[in-house]
From TrEMBL:
Region Disordered: start-end pairs: 250-269
Pfam family, one: DUF3450
Biased composition (Low complexity): 260-269
Signal sequence, start to end: 1-27
Residue runs in coiled coils: 50-105
Domain of life: Bacteria
Protein name: DUF3450 domain-containing protein
Entry keyword set: Coiled coil, Signal
Source organism per UniProt: Kushneria avicenniae
């Protein structure tokens, strides 16, 4: 009996010892699992931030490409306008120089003024034919003023420069108005759009027909559907119904266009 009791005690002591030895191992395993789970959560959070950064990067790249494309279109448009604006500035400089030397050229003033009117009339006749009747009437009034001996020289010069500035200002703005278009001996109501002195367009009220004036052959050319959409946008911009934007449209005046023919009466409004 004593031997059996001793053996039982020994076995109990051994089991207790093994249990005590296993407790640190179980605790370490639990701690390891906790650390592993925490690391997995951290890695998942890092991956989420990486994915978000990739999305933001792609969006920024898309915006950058759009901005570069818009910049390139603007540069092309500015290049096309540069020669026209330079010519206009040269004319202003010549007239300013004429004013500064007026006392020295007073005897030649009548011929000088008439020559300036003649050049201005030639410019209007060779220009794209917007507001043609109004512009010609302004020139006729100017010519009568210059020929009137009762009008002072200062008044003549003032009116001449006013007409010149009005014509030059056409090169720096957009304008849209309703008018009558004559084509093939038929008249129709249309909406005209002018972009500086380089673009002249029309659009029918239903938007199904439209054209661009080509100064080289002095006639209208049909626009396709996408171009008519651009003209409609331009009309809304000119009427302050839409924010300004770049418009992809064919120009009315080529860079080497030296046409001096009279404008077609059918394009007047």
């Amino acid at each position: 009996m004593r031997t059996q009791r001793r053996n039982c005690c020994l076995r109990g002591a051994a089991f207790s010892l093994m249990t005590l030895m296993a407790l640190p191992t179980l605790a370490e395993a639990s701690s390891l699992r906790d650390e592993t789970a925490q690391q997995q959560q951290q890695q998942q959070a890092i991956q989420t931030r990486i994915d978000q950064a990739d999305d933001e990067t792609r969006e920024l790249l898309t915006r950058l490409r759009d901005a570069q494309s818009s910049t390139q279109r603007l540069e092309r448009y500015n290049t096309q306008l540069a020669s026209t604006l330079d010519e206009q500035q040269q004319r202003i400089d010549r007239q300013q120089h004429a004013l500064e030397t007026l006392d020295d050229t007073r005897e030649a003033l009548p011929d000088t003024l008439q020559g300036m009117v003649d050049r201005l009339r030639a410019l209007v006749e060779a220009d794209i034919p917007f507001h043609r009747d109004e512009r010609m009437a302004r020139l006729d009034s100017l010519e009568r003023t210059i020929a009137d001996p009762t009008v002072s020289e200062d008044k003549r010069m003032e009116q001449l420069l006013s007409v010149w500035r009005t014509e030059l200002d056409y090169g720096h703005d957009m304008d849209s108005w309703r008018g009558r278009l004559t084509r093939d001996n038929q008249q129709s109501d249309v909406q005209f759009l002018r972009m500086g002195r380089v673009g002249f367009y029309y659009l029918t009220p239903d938007g199904e027909q439209g054209g661009v004036w080509k100064n080289r052959d002095r006639q209208w050319h049909a626009l396709d559907s996408a171009q008519r959409t651009m003209v409609n946008r331009g009309i809304r911009i000119a009427n302050d119904q839409r924010a300004p934007e770049l418009l992809s449209l064919p120009l009315s005046v080529d860079a080497d266009d030296t046409s001096s023919e009279s404008a077609s009466q059918g394009a007047s409004s």
